[in-house]
Amino acid sequence: MDTATIRFGGAFGVVCALAMTPVLLTGTRDTSAALATANGIVPLLHILFGLAFLGVLVAMLRQAAGPAPDVYAALAGGVLFFTLTAGGFALAVIPAAVAQSGAPDITELNEPLLTLAMQLYSYCQIGAVAMIFATSAIVWRTAVLPKWTAVGAVLGFLPLVHTWIPLPAAVSSLGWILLIGLVMLIAPIGAQESSQPVNDDAPGVRN
What we know:
By secondary structure, the chain is an all-alpha fold. The chain has one domain. It contains 9 helices and no strands. The protein has helices at residues 3-19, 21-26, 31-37, 41-65, 69-101, 107-142, 157-160, 166-186, 189-194. The protein is elongated, with a radius of gyration of 19 Å. It starts with a helix and ends in a 13-residue tail after the last helix. 40% of the residues are buried.
């Protein structure tokens, strides 16, 4: 995979992570957060750029590791993470969208919708855990990115306890996306090295 594609993927990851900052600062349950996302800009940026980041990341991992189980674990985890996050966004913006459209009031459904949205936001962290740990394992094994980025696996531990600390878990998983995105954007050296063909003229190898 060429360096330009990896850099684009990294930029997508950075935008994906930073797009969530307004929601994290206001809080998921805050009405202002729902209103902020009602126009669809924040969720669309997060989901679309996140999926683009995931696509480039998985392609890079597969090129380095081949069709290994942890490559598909990273893919499945990323898809689960962004799918459940998108579902949470959809539920969270329904009350604000209905209020702005002038449709019949559904105030009695606001609390159940927000509760379900928070459950989706919470359980999407299961996918984040799989994506973080699988990617870190491949990085450590193949050096597809600088090996020190495998230490980013520590950011997968807070999402493991997402049911008790949902906000820190979300910040941790987004911090990992931001970290990997920055590495892919600034220093995709390991990716270049991993794609080089094996030298058949190495000592001990005869044609």
